[in-house]
Each structure stands twice: as C-alpha cells, then as structure tokens.
Queue: 4 jobs
Job 1
Amino acid sequence: MASASLLKSSPVVEKSEWIKGQKTLRLPSATSFRCNSNSSSHSPLTVLASSYADELVKTAKIIASPGRGILAMDESTATCGKRFASVGLENTEANRRAYRTLLVSAPGLGNYVSGAILFEETLYQSSTDGKKLVDVLIQQNIVPGIKVDTGLVPLVGSNDESWCQGLDGLASRAAAYYQQGARFSKWRSVLSIPNGPSALAVKEAAWGHARYAAISQDNGLVPLLEPEILRDGVHGIDRTFEVAQKLWAEVFFYLAENNVMFEGILLKPSMVTPGAECKERATPEKVAEYTLKFLSRRIPPSVPGILFLSGGQSEVEATFNLNAMNQAPNPWHVSFSYGKALQNTCLKTWGGRPENVKAAQDALLLRAKANSLAQLGKYTGEGELEKSKQGMFVKGYTY
C-alpha cells in the first residue's frame, strides 16, 4: 500500500514518570512569600506558589515531547451527533463508547500522541471490554486531559459575538477531574474577524482564559489555552496576523495579572492563515512565516509547548503547514492538537461497523504518524491519499 511508508518507523518515547502513582490525589495548597517594602505607602506583595508547580512543569514537558502532539477527542454529545450523522450512524452512548475505544486502543498510538483531550463523559467511561478509557490511555503512555469550559453563549453588548462560560464551579470540577486521572485541561473561546473582533470580545476571551488557567493550575491541571480565531471571512493573512497579535498580547497580560506560571501552561492557537473565503491562498511556507513571526512577538519562550488547532483545514494541509513551521529551530515545541484533522478519514473508514475497526485504526495511525513527522520537520507527503486532501471547513460552524 502507498500509505504504508508513513507507518514504517516511529520515534522512541520513554515511559513517562507521571504515570507512577498517578492515582494518588494531592490536595492543592499554596506557599506564601511576603515581600515588605521599606516604604509604608506600599502594600506587601504576596506571591503564591502552588504545591503542584513541579508536577505541572513535568506534565507540560511530557506532552511537549519530540515527535508527539495531542489528539482532540473532546467532542460533546451534540457534536458527536453531527460527526456520526455524516456517516449514517446513530448518536448513542454505545456508539460513542465504541468509537472512543477504537481511538484510544489503536496499537502504538502513544508513539505519536502524548495527550488526549476528553469530554466529561469519556473521562468516566469504560471501553467496550470494560477497561477505564483513562487507564487505556495511560497504558499507551498518553496523558489524559479534559475539556472544562461549558460552551459559548452570546456576548451582550458586542457585535453578535460570543463568550465562553464555565468558571462557576470550575475549582471543584477540576479537583474531581484530577482525582479521576486527568492531568491537563482545555478551555476554548472564539473570535470572529468579520465581526470585528470587538475590543470587548478580545478582552473577555483573554480574561476568561486567564482565570481558567489560574484555577486549573491550582488544582493540578496544566491549562491548554484555545482562544480560536475562526477562519470565516474573506480577509487576507495580514488581517489574521494583526488580530492574532492583539489577542495574544491581551491573553498574556491577564495571565500575568492572575499569577499564572508560564512554564506550566500549553497553548492551542490558530495558525495564521487567510480567511477561508479569501481568493488569495497561502503556501505552507507563508503560513509558517506569519505564524512564527506572531509567536516570536507575543509568546514567551518559557511556554513549553504550542499545539495548533487545524481549524477546518484538510488533513494534509494541516500537516504540511505544521511541517513548514518546524523547518528551523524555535524556542517552543511546535506541534498539533487536531480533532477532525486526525479523525476524519478514521471515522469514515469505521462507519460504525466492527469489521472496519482495524482499518479505521490504521487510518488514525497514518495521520498521527504524518503529524509526528511534521513536528520533527520531516514530513514529505509521500503516500497520502486524495481523500486526505479534502478541506473540512464549514462556514458558520458551531460546536
């Protein structure tokens, strides 16, 4: 088979130390350092250091390990329904369980994937043969993660924009997720360029991510920040670049305001591309140039990993763009956190039929291997199938 060339070899990954004793729940605490000023007109400065600090740094480094990235499989029940409908499959708990089992049990997946983002149902779910899905991931040397936001709602006072909810009760939920085995979390908001984005929407996204990140770290979860810039629109790549700079300047301002430890976070940004309806397309080299330029201007080198979302790009397009960004050294681990760009062909191949599980897992491993090579800057596109080159952007798509 032509595609077999992508599966011949895999990077060697040592067993992660985080697995040892991961069942133990540690109660979060903090150490205070008080710095008294000589001037009575200044208030004392108190810096809080979470007892999870060392663990957060270690977890972030494990996820940002060479040749590996994140499998985003945190589709909500409603989104699963949309994906399943595309292959004529009913959206039942049994079918969701079967598909998630297929994904996490693909042999050797941990050679290419270091973390998996789960929906809450999945975090507590067992596989079709009765094993906890979290345990299956751990056996694959994959760090379990959890989506913690509760979705988008209209942002009153904006230009038909949205904000992300879920901060209420997050601390107690995060503690429970840690006890269940999760070690990182994800929060997603969106910005629309055709709608501005307004200063209000940018500020709301940045502040929400900062509060979420602080709460996650305080409960032992590495935050994966995803303020997505939607690709909807006819704008060119320069406009996307401008918005990305503005957005991430705000994000890091509020992260600092909330005493978030940069060494213990991960980012899931959008690549800098033209709008999906822009007539002037961008080569992988141009996408890499603009994206790396924005990163160098806005992202501190202390951040261990930047794992991009695919944003409706085709499977092959997302891989080529990632590969172009890894043609030269940079201060971060630049990798992938793909959902549809890893799962699209896999889901279509499976179609809910047990006899197709092996072929579907092979399709998943093919894509994971391709992106592993792209993270190392060694992807060539050899052996790719035409169906992997089909775009997946949907205008006005809601999750």
Note: Residues 1-41 have pLDDT under 50 and may be disordered.
Job 2
Amino acid sequence: MIFVGGLPFSTDPSSQGSDTLSALMEHPFLVSVSNSLKAIPVRNFSVKEESTQERATKTKWVYAFQREYATVDPALVDFVGTDEATTCVGLVIRNRKNGMTSVAHMDSPDIVDMGLSQMLLLVVDHNLDAELEVHLVGGFEDVSPNFLKSCTGSESDAKLEGYSYPLCAKIFETLCTRREKFHIQTAFILGHNTRRDSEGNAFPIFNGLAVETSTGSVIPASFDGARCPDEIVRRIRVTASYEDCSWNGKLLDTYDTRTDQFRIASCCWTSRQRHTALTLRRLTDSEILLTCSTSPSAEGPDFVDNLRRQCEYLIKYPDWIETFPLKQPRVFERTSDGEWKRC
C-alpha cells in the first residue's frame, strides 16, 4: 500500500507496474520534490579531504555497492548511501518512528521482490503498521520516451525499453502489492533524473544519494575515495554472485546492523572469470565501456579504472580461497577515528 503527499495513492489491482509508474512520475507532490532536489549540491564523502580536526568528530557512514544493501541504526551511523548508479536505482526505506534506514543499490527487476523483503526485515521489525518513507534516486531515460510509448508487447519482451524503466516499474509494482504502508517521498528517476547534451544524448543528473539517518533527509551524494571497506573484493563479489545460484534473486548482505561491522561473506570465482579478466586487460578503455556497461556514455570517469583493478586482483589471486581462507568472512570494525580495520 502506498501513499503520496500523505494521501493514499489508489491503484487498479489489475494494473501493471508501468501504469503506476507513469502516474507517479506526473504526481504534483513528487514533481515538486524532484525540482527541489535538483537545486541541492552533490555532497562528496571523501576520507582524503578530512582534516585532523574533522577526524576527531568524524561523520560515520555506511556505503552500499551495486546489488548490495545495508540497514543502519541512527544511533550508530550518521549517513548511509550509494553511488555509481546509471541505469541502477538507489532505494531508501526508513521507519519514521525509530529512524532505522535501509539503502539498496538495485540493478535488476529480478532482485526486487526478495530484495525488498531483505531490506524490511530490520526496518519493520514485524510491525506492519509502521510508517515507512521511501525514496528513489537513479535510473534515467536510457531510451527515448517516445520510443517507450510506441513499444509493442513483443518489443517489450525483448527488453528494448532499456534498463531503467522496467526496474523502476517493478519496484513500484512490488510496493503496491505489499501490506506495509509506504510513503513515497522522492521519485528522482527516469525523466526527472535525465539531462541531455547538445546532441540529444541522455545522462543521469545524479548518480548517488545519502540519507541523514537522524532526520531522514536525502541528498545527492558521491563517495569517490570513500567506498570502503574492502572495495575491490566487494566489487568482485558482485560479479561472482551472478554465477552463484545461492544469491539468485537476492541482494548482497555485507553490513551487520547491530554491531556496526562489515562482514563480507565468502564467495568463489571461477577460472572463467580469470579468463575474462585476462581478456579485458587487453582491451582499450572504449572497448571495456562497450563490453561491460549498460550505458557506456553515462559512466563515471573511474569506471574503466575500477574494472581494471578488479581484473588485476583476479589475475593475481586466481584462487578465491586465498581471499577467503577456510571460507570465513572478511570482517571489518570501525575504529575510534571512524576508519575501518580488518579484524
């Protein structure tokens, strides 16, 4: 059940997620919020830029990579967020009463149903009457809106409608069918999150978000230099999860809400992934973009560099057991100055 602007948002039980999505994109309340969000400058969370004095009272944040989610307690964490989203969507669910906040980096309609259940587990805490705020930032018009209107059923089945649109439609379709009370506060997606250059090429306006857990405020954000801990291993784990059937339909769980620790569960990579890494290492930057991205022209400047670092790690450590001895998780705890230390 969903609400917009404090009022119930009625949907036809037989309607598809795309119908709900279209109506919400034109809702005056959400249009106004999107216009206001455009005026907010992007906050860059960067460890390198903090002075000694700032480190003494350092802001504590938790970062979620693609296909990860994290549920945080406002008593332990100041901000939680994600970035690097082009056709992906950053989804926020926050309990108004206790401030418990979950953020996910959704990258496929296939993980929405189970992913929402994972996010809600600690946010709702068995209270179906909880008032839940929902924010979406990310996804853009990676195909022309005129093309969407002219799509036939067969074309849609072939996924010619792009990546962002079916993901956003699935999220709202699932929210509508669940029993919890969702208050849609932000829908900065698709047309609202699209800018075009002089040649008409589309790009996302914002690629990331952060939630201030004490207030629930959502701001555009970048975590360049602050995607920690264990950045490379977590990036590789995202890729490896696609070949691991135990993760089918699920978001990756890396953060322990109660202890404020990261616990990166073991994952295995195959000789095929090492072969892919060797192949990618021989490609040019533009070839890597075209091969590995759903939106090559919209990726950030460090997209290729991050992929190359992953490739070098896989080539250096072809056996995953070197990274996860005895299949044990890699555990990181927060130090007194806010850094992360391997346990």
Note: The first strand starts at residue 2 and ends at 4.
Job 3
Amino acid sequence: MVKFSAYSLMISSFTPFHSIILKTPRRFSRNIPFNHSTKSRVASYYQNVELHTEDMMGASRYLPPLFSVAPMMEWTDNHYRTLARLISKHAWLYTEMLAAETIVYQQGNLDKFLGYSPEQHPVVLQIGGSKLENLAKATELANAYNYDEINFNCGCPSPKVAGHGCFGVRLMLDPKFVGEAMSVIAANTNVPVSVKCRIGVDDHDSYNELCDFIYKVSSLSPTRHFIIHSRKALLNGISPADNRRIPPLKYEFYYALLRDFPDLTFTINGGINSVVEANAALREGAHGVMVGRAAYHYPWQTLGHVDTAIYGAPSSGITRREILQRYQEYGDSVLGKDGNNRPNIREVAKVGSFVSFTSLLHFFC
C-alpha cells in the first residue's frame, strides 16, 4: 500500500455539515434564489471536472450533478426514473446496477435492460463486474443507448455481489484492478466515467487506505469523478440494509479527500435525506450530493425542491396532481408492452413503498 504520510484528517479544524444539520436544522431555506452562489457552484464544477474534448459538448448540455439520485437495486428502474424526471428536470438519475455479464449475455434483448425514454436525460448507467472482457463488451453495447456517464460499482455490500460475485465493494481491496477496469470502460465509450465506492471495507478502513484506492484508480485510468458513500462496508455478519446504517458515517474522510485530491471531483453520499441537508453539504464545499432512499420514498418532498433550491431554476409550477396524471398516462402506455402482461400495474406503480395508483395518490398528498 502506498503510504500517504502527507494526508491527515485534521479533524480539529473541520466542521462537518452533519453537525450543523443536527444542531440547527432550520437554518437553511428550502427556497434559495438563483444567485451568485448557485451560479458559482455550476461554474466551479465544470472547472474542476476534467472532461475529454469529445465529451465536452455532450456533458455541457445539462447542468452538473450537484444533486443525483443514487442507483438502487430493484428501485431506480425505468418506471421510477420516469416519475423522478417528471418532478425534477435537473437532478441526475442513475440506473440500477447492471452486471456486465447480464448485458453481454442478453445482447438480443438489450432494450429490456438498457432502454429508456429520451426525457430521462441526464441519466447514468451503473455497471458491475469483475471480468475485464465483459466490462469492455458491456460498455461497447451500451453506447447505442446514449447514457451520459458510465459508473462502476465498487460499493455494493450484498453477499450476492461482493460475496459470490466477487465485485461491488470487494473491489476496493484491489485498486489496481479497478484502475484497469476503468481504463477498459473508458476506452470503450466517449462519455465520462466514474466510480462509486465506500470509505473502506471491514478492517481496511483507514484514511490512508482510502487515499491509496483513489490515487491508484485515478493514476491508472481517466477516472476523475468518485461518488463516496461515507461509511465503510462490513462483508460478514450484517445485511445490506444494516450496512446502510450500522457502520458510522465519517464525513471527515470525504472532506479530507477534497483537500488532498484537488484535481478530482467527489460526490458525497450517505445519510443525506433532504434538500436542506444537500445544500448544507454543498455550502461546506461538497462538489455534488447523492441522495438515495429519501428520493425514492418521498419523491415530491425531495425532488420537488431540487431544481429551485439546488440549481436556482425558476419553479416549473407543475402540481402534484399534474405529475400523477402524466405518470398515469405513462403507465397506461407501457402496461403489457413486453408481452405476458409485463410490465403489470404493480410494477409500474411500485414507487416508494406503494403498489397501486390509489396509494400513489395518497403518497403525493
């Protein structure tokens, strides 16, 4: 492991945003006007991110990922992303993680796995895997679907993924391979690439080890954007759900990365449950914020404030009832289109914890 003797957390001089939120939860407004601060966020993001020349035009069509919705298995599917985009025009959306092997072996049925409506842009494809040839082929096959970024999963602690699959968060233990994988992915696409990871795995949870991972991946590949889930993963003894709450959040690791890798871009993830908290993180210097389950369970309360409060855009004026009407029109248009009554109404209406349009109506009210 590379010894990063110059890297230290310097916690004594650090004020993590979560302490601000817990002590003074009402100090931040939900309706922040489009001012110099908001403009500066967008400008500074593009200055910080190093994009390939051929990527610049495609990436600059959208505002930067100051706010994104985390990839969540069986949750951030095509239907949810359609609903999310009706609510927010600027939040970046992620697919569920797709195994590279699935993409390669389903070449005759790719629309089912990779297809989406153009209205979902900006949208990121997250892939996972541990075989370079499959990662290369999967990325190549995905090019036809015009995703705005390819993200590599190095953070999932599920036993099916990190255990039997030997990828996900387990890959953090092999940063050299991740660097090679990112080089292969980048070589087979013309869009930016990124990595989503934790701050550590089991006993490999020191700040030096995290720096070793970031340094090697960014040195061995064109990767310049890392999404950091600010808690480590425990591979044995606890469930994926417990892995989202039991290991303590260490935001100081994230903010130390901003200081120690000034040429890279980092998005913070983990424990952020509202636009108020997202804005607090951005004010503390975060390059971007990723929100997971809050954006899924409470899309109106969360995504409904993103465009105005995070991006400073004028309100669209769309109402919850209008969103429901548009989503019902979408549902009517896709029911049964894949044959064998798939997708069915239960699949289309499964947003949040609800499985019917009646519940969906209650959900928004």
Note: The chain has a mean pLDDT of 83.
Job 4
Amino acid sequence: MAHKTKLHLSIFLLLIVTFWEQDHVHGEPKVPCYFIFGDSLVDSGNNNNLETVAKVNYPPYGIDFPGGPTGRFTNGRTVADIMGELLGFDDFIPSFLTVNSSEILKGVNYASGSAGIRQETGKQLGANLELSKQLENHQTIVSRIVDMLGNESAANHLNQCFYWSVTGSNDYLNNYFMPQYYNTSSQYTPDKYAEALIKQYSQQIMTLYNSGARKVAVNGIGPIGCAPYSTANYDTKGSLCVDYMNDAVNYFNSRLISLVDHLNNDLADARFIYLNAIGFGSEYTASPGFSFELNGCCKVNEHGQCVPNETPCSFRTLNLFWDLFHPTEISNKLSATSSYLTVKNIL
C-alpha cells in the first residue's frame, strides 16, 4: 500500500510538471490585469513597513526567490506568483506598497500577512491590512485607472481582469482559536462563526464587484489543523491532524461554496469560482510511502516564523511546509497548477 501511494503521487507530480512546462509559455497574458487579495499565503511585501512581527523581509525567507527576501512568507514564489506566470505575466504583480503608476494597469497585490475577513483578526501580532482595508486600497487604484483611461475604458479594462482572494485562515488561527486574545470562540459555535464570516465576506465581495470585478476566484481554507504549528500546539488526540480545527473551517468552506453559487445565480454579468485548498497535510501524508516532510524547513521563533539568518533545510523540494504555517514553493507550485486548471473556466 505504501509503494502504491508513493507511485500514485509520483505520477501526480510528473503530470503537474508536464502541464507546467506545456502551459507556461510566453505570449500575451490571458487577462489584461490580475488583482490579489488575502493574507500571508499571497503577501508579497505589503507588511514590510508595518509595525508587526508578521513580516518576513529577511533571510532565510526568499532564499530561492530572484533577488532574495521581499516579504514573501516562503522560500521562493507564492501561489499567487505562480498563478501569475500561468496566466502569462512575465513579471510578478507588484505589491500595493511598491506599485507605481506605470504598473497599475497590469494589477496589484494587496495581501497582508496575519490579516483576515474580520477587522480585529491577527492584530495581536501588530498592524495588518484587513480585507476591508485592502478593498479601500483597491478603490484608490481604481480611481487612478479611471483618471488614466476615462470611465468607460477603465470599466471595460477592469471587467476583463482576474481577481483572486485567498483569505479566512487567520480568522481561525489568529482569532477563533486564540481565546487568550479574542472572544469569538465564546460568542459563536463553529457553525455560527462561519455564518458570521461568510456574511461579512459576501459584503466585501460585493464591494469588489461594484468596483468592476467580473472574473473572481475565492479560495477555500486549507486543513489548518494539519499545519506544523497546530499539531505542535494543540491536542491531536492521536489523529494525524487537529481534527476539530479542520471541522471548523469545513463549515466556512461549505458556506463559501453556497455563496459562490448564489453570486453566479444573482449576477449574470460576472463569473465567480470556488477553489479548493489542496490538503497535502491529510490523505497523502497518512501513508508511510509519502516521501514529503510535514515539519517546517527552518528553525522557528515563538511565532512560528523562521529565525533570521538561520540555515534552512537543504532539500526544500521534499518539504511541504517552509515554517510552521506557510507552504514551500513546491507546495505553492502544486496548488497554483491545480487551481489554474479550474480558473481557466472563467477567463
């Protein structure tokens, strides 16, 4: 059984690499612009100037990224970076922190480490740009595009762009499951908390729609109970993962799928799509034949982030996690490629 699982995974990885080599070709991008919202899974440096411990503009972060550390929470490219390459962009989408006027027509990355759907999420670590603030920043960019192109041309341009939101995990990891800082777990059952999150998220998505978004992908939350931080700090009760944490986010994911269905029914001029977060912390790794490592690749501090300037593991393509929360570039490549196969349907 172990050999069979390893064989199946090897074939899967081979197919991913083959697809990547065939589909990642130079030419015109499949969309004129690409806007990214979310948290540390897709942050490209927006937290660098904020007063927070949730910033990683130091080595060994970026050890495999061109130019070194940028504020990306991984060793190389994020899942959003790789999605951009699959969409046909030759350059990485700039962060809101660094974007200039000549770049905004191709898109902006607004994501912020430790941020979430709720305003208070992640604030025990310091400042962040919650999703509503990211949408405010996007409106600033939209206004600049209108000034450049005029109302009609700007609207047409923005309608053709791809918008991707990767958020929600911090509303659990850095809110609901931190009762020492937040009271949400005493206010809500897991089901009611998911309901409250989706209600707020739906309003935020409508704000994005009203600013011109017509091709929108929203990510489900991955199995946070399988992250090294979770298994090290919470009782797994003999399971591979912290199952009650995964159960909680499943309420969110189910409601998010329903929300996407409603949006597609109600907004005929737009296309919304739900993207599964690949659960590499679960069924594949349950087999002893699985050759990836589930522990992080670097020495970490009390926040689960890499200790500055420490030497990370050498075989980073064999690790799913970079630190105690964030995936390695190889994980991001697998996730982005799988997601792109779905995203192609709305482009």
Note: The first strand starts at residue 34 and ends at 38.
